[in-house]
Amino acid sequence: MFTRGLKRKCVGHEEDMEGALAGLKTVSSYSLQRQSLLDMSLVKLQLCHMLVEPNLCRSVLIANTVRQIQEEMTQDGTWRSVTPQEAGRAPLDRLVSTEILCRSAWEQEGARPAPGLGDGHVQGPVSDLCPVTSAQAPRHPQSGIWELDGPREDRGGFHKSLDQIFETLETKNPGCMEELFSDVDSPYYDLDTVLTGMVGGARPGPCEGLEGLAPATPGPSSSCKSDLGELDHVVEILVET
Amino acid sequence: RLAEAANAGPVGGVERDASVRGDSPSASTHTPPRARAPRLSPGALPRAPGSTPCDQRPGILAPRPPSAPGAAPRAPHPRSGRSLLGAPPRPPARAGSRARRRRRRSGRRARPPAAARRTPVAVAACGAAHGPAAGLASPRAPAPRPPPRARAHAPLLFCQLTAPPPRPAAPAADQGSWCLCQLNGAADLEVSEADIISTVEFNHTGELLATGDKGGRVVIFQREPESKNAPHSQGEYDVYSTFQSHEPEFDYLKSLEIEEKINKIKWLPQQNAAHSLLSTNDKTIKLWKITERDKRPEGYNLKDEEGKLKDLSTVTSLQVPVLKPMDLMVEVSPRRIFANGHTYHINSISVNSDCETYMSADDLRINLWHLAITDRSFNIVDIKPANMEDLTEVITASEFHPHHCNLFVYSSSKGSLRLCDMRAAALCDKHSKLFEEPEDPSNRSFFSEIISSVSDVKFSHSGRYMLTRDYLTVKVWDLNMEARPIETYQVHDYLRSKLCSLYENDCIFDKFECAWNGSDSVIMTGAYNNFFRMFDRNTKRDVTLEASRESSKPRAVLKPRRVCVGGKRRRDDISVDSLDFTKKILHTAWHPAENIIAIAATNNLYIFQDKVNSEMH
Fold first, then answer.
1. B11 assigned to some structural domain
2. pLDDT tens track of chain A, all 241 residues?
3. Smallest Cβ distance to B256: which of A51, A64, A103?
4. With contacts defined as CB-CB under 8 Å, which chain B residues touch A64?
5. B62 in a structural domain
6. Do residue B388 and residue A107 have CB atoms under 8 angstroms apart?
7. Of the candidates B326, B323, B322, which has an alpha carbon nearest to the alpha carbon of residue B293?
8. What stretch of H or E contains A189?
9. How far apart are CA A194 and CA A186, in angstroms?
């Protein structure tokens, strides 16, 4: 039951520790499995085929799985927030952030960025968060939820955190107990940072209202850059039409 | 094997040449020799221009030549009918192919005579469950047959399996005695992705069998009428027509490619001499009309035989053109193109019993079309939430009731079925009946929802029952009972402990289809490792059979297979871990009246027949 390399503290406490550690091990192995399932699902959601639209049914099922895992984690109390800015945040917000995360996968169904939009176009799994072109609106009135500036601002942070998640996925190996716990901690942290970034930046607007014009409300991270971004967007619309 | 399946992703891009459709004369310069090897005997009739001899069955799915380098995204091919931009249609090319019947009648056979191929079926002993007629019949010792004539083309290319020396009768199969009737498809190990069959459908009489593939092609097989020479041998399915139904398109607004893969084919009930079918890819539905031409007019006054205008000075008398017989030609033309009706991917189409309307369902919406009107469709179901964030459920399949033209059912990714009545409202957002089975709490896992997603729903021929397929089971529902299905059959319950791996390699998202037999007494569905399962609802017996070249010798009864999950392992059993998850049977079809089934295994089409029990019970 003990993993190799774990020192026994003393004979007297052995049994207690055995029981406790065994219990912890099963618990943590379950939560480890759950965590790896969560990571796997997030990776699946983000991976997209660049040329062909991803399967909406599959995306929805994976997103539901992710939501289910996160709900369970919230109930368990293992869904901890570590960053100070999250101190006063209700758990619901975190669930909402998951929605946004999962939504990105099927936002592609209704909305796809025009190629070459903007300078800071980061390639990779984050590219699906790119903003919508307005010209699609007549056919897909539900698109245009994604703002231009918000996601773009935070994309860098998001991308970085996802990388960290991928790293932990690779380097994770069941070693000694401490290692297990330390590994368990970091992905949560990263996920939180990731989702915080998302929530801070994005501001979903009403679907029908948007006819393709740039949204009026820039995120809290508005700056010159976002204004330029809006300008780009408007120019895009004019050019397309 | 599970890990292998994870790595076996789709093969790279599809190759094709936009100008080649495999039927035009120019095609002969492009397609590789094996697809074009002449199989006509020396005395055969010459080929009419623009047609291909029906003899030539290049594994039905001839490999397509590579596209020109640097090909830009293509607009719809002119021959596919009306272009999306609304340009006037060019005259449709004749996707002609020659039926075999005429040539047979003329006595010039281009392939080994049927007698050489068909050894008398060694009648296997059947269980008593199959009626009083079944009994132990002693196997006849078949007479020695001449070896089949050597073929001109490459040996790997299969067209018709010729019978090996006959074997003695095999022990009785529990569920009838299914034999391989024919196998169409290339035997290559390298399967081009365009050749993967994506749908199989018999027409209402069972005379025609249509298959669609990932390359957008449709191949129609026609059953030969039983010949008088061999009354015991039933007709086999020969290629009747091959045509390109859909082309890949590029959605410039979304910067996405629209696949040409044929998702579904549905036959229209035959109303005149022509046959019609609907075929659909992700976005566009097309109505194809298949006609035969076996006469042509001759003796025009103004035109000569080649069609050139005659010099009027040479016309000295008038004649009435007469119709002369010609070689049978099958012509396929697109009659309607129903485009721009769907934002999401179309997963099913269903023709209404009124024969005037049909519906098409995508992930979030269902549209009702009139077969004659292409520029309008009515939205009858819309489950798209106002906020896409709230999306948790999608439509996975739908079908009209076989008799009541106002009823239809659609299934969802959460495992529920909704029966809707179009008389109630124009937009059937409120279901008339909701069929949902409460979840089994003991089996609950993170994958419960995924495996409960219904991948196919089929009404029984009687209209009283519905058949649904989710990942691990098939269920029979009574329309009168919404609380739970009346029957549940485990297809491959041994996978329940492997769900995590199957989730990882995406196999858990595979959409299997299911089928009823003509009398609604047996249901069939596919599984992995090229296995397919049949469940007899009356005897409660089931059987697992395999569709593979190695295990299906023609005329030999298929041996039931078994997957062992530990415990006692019999010889010939397969263990769960050695199942090949890349070999999945997603598409199956059952002849509406006889015990003939069509199984699509990747790029191969198997047709099995239960000769012993050719009538259904």
1. no
2. 444 554 554 445 555 566 566 666 677 788 888 999 999 999 888 875 555 678 899 999 999 999 999 999 998 877 654 344 444 444 444 444 444 444 444 554 444 444 433 343 334 343 343 333 333 333 333 333 333 333 333 444 444 444 444 444 444 443 344 443 444 444 444 444 444 444 433 343 343 333 334 434 444 444 555 566 677 777 776 776 5
3. A51
4. 392, 449
5. no
6. yes
7. B326
8. helix A177-201
9. 12
